[in-house]
Design brief:
With about 60 residues, this protein is α+β, with helices and mostly antiparallel strands. The chain contains one helix and three strands, in the order βββα. The protein has one domain. Helices cover about 15% and strands about 20% of the residues. The protein has a three-stranded antiparallel beta sheet with strand order 1-2-3, covered by helices on one side. Strand 2 and strand 3 form a beta hairpin.
Length: about 60
């Protein structure tokens, strides 16, 4: 089970899906390569990666200001 931090913009809950899931991704219809996405359920902030691990790591990364 993957652990996703809350959205850095709105503190909403995030979820994972891929281009191979049964989600209507018209822009991905001609792509043979699987792409993984992490999206906020509230504000729809989105990040992607070539693997689930990369997408999760990108989502969970926080920059210190």
């Amino acid at each position: 089970m993957i652990e996703l931090k809350l959205c850095p913009f709105c503190d909403g809950e995030a979820f994972h899906y891929s281009s191979k899931d049964n989600i209507n991704l018209d822009t991905m219809s001609d792509c043979d390569k699987e792409i993984h996405f992490i999206m906020c359920k509230d504000c729809t902030a989105l990040i992607c990666g070539e693997t689930e691990e990369i997408a999760v790591a990108r989502w969970n990364k926080r920059v210190k200001l």
